[in-house]
């Protein structure tokens, strides 16, 4: 499983990129709005930092296929690594079909059922983004959805669509997604940091330092 970082904060993106663990970035209108900066400029700056797929979503105010296609073309023109994120609706599927016919990569977002994922894959989406945390929030096990989509896509070798496990909230989500077989997990910076931690690692570092200093000094 690969990692993308799920943020529009360029400082967090730079830090994660320097660690060498991220292969791409996902954003959404909420994440970009949180940064309070120009939408397109933020995406361009992100694409200049990470050499991998960068998902930029059509604005939440665009609901018809024509509008999404026009916006998708503009997002794709920002950088060769841009992936156009489109919500799962009938209009969204039409936009995915049109954009993928033009060779533009798409990420179908707000996936909450296996059937939605299958439809997006058949429309030509490069990626689907099932949201596990938001399902957990309403007492439905989100990981079951990731497992179902992995199994469904495995049944049909002609499906090339990659699964991005999204709405990842903690390190257990990450482990579960990797065991389920998700292609990618997109994770907030906080979760990347949490994943690096283990109390025995900290204790081990302290003991190595103490033992070294006792014999060799500074
Ligand atoms: C990524 O594609 C999604 O936009 C994101 O993971 C949503 O996460 P949230 O449910 O924590 O807002």
From TrEMBL:
The gene is fsa. The lineage of its organism: Bacteria, Bacillati, Bacillota, Clostridia, Eubacteriales. SUPFAM superfamilies: Aldolase (SSF51569). Transaldolase is important for the balance of metabolites in the pentose-phosphate pathway. It comes from Allofournierella massiliensis. Keywords: Cytoplasm, Pentose shunt, Schiff base, Transferase. It comes from the Bacteria. It holds the Pfam family TAL_FSA. It is found in: Cytoplasm. This is Probable transaldolase. Pathway: Carbohydrate degradation; pentose phosphate pathway; D-glyceraldehyde 3-phosphate and beta-D-fructose 6-phosphate from D-ribose 5-phosphate and D-xylulose 5-phosphate (non-oxidative stage): step 2/3. The active site is at residue 85. Its EC number is 2.2.1.2. Belongs to the transaldolase family. Type 3B subfamily.
């Amino acid at each position: 499983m690969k990692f993308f970082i799920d943020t529009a904060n360029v400082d967090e993106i730079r830090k994660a990129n320097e660690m060498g663990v991220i292969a791409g970035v996902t954003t959404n209108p909420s994440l970009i709005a949180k940064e309070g900066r120009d939408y397109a400029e933020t995406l361009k700056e992100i694409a200049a930092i990470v050499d991998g797929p960068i998902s930029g979503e059509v604005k939440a105010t665009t609901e018809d296929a024509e509008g999404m296609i026009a916006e998708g073309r503009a997002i794709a023109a920002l950088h060769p690594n841009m992936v156009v994120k489109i919500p799962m609706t009938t209009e969204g599927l039409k936009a995915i079909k049109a954009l993928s016919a033009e060779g533009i990569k798409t990420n179908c977002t707000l996936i909450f059922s296996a059937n939605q994922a299958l439809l997006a894959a058949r429309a030509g989406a490069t990626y689907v983004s099932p949201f596990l945390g938001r399902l957990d929030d309403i007492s439905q096990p989100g990981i079951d959805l990731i497992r179902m989509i992995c199994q469904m896509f495995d049944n049909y070798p002609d499906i090339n669509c990659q699964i991005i496990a999204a709405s990842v909230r903690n390190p257990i989500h990450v482990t579960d997604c990797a065991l389920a077989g998700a292609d990618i997990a997109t994770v907030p910076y906080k979760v990347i940091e949490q994943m690096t931690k283990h109390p025995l690692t900290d204790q081990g570092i302290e003991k190595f330092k103490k033992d070294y200093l006792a014999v060799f000094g500074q």
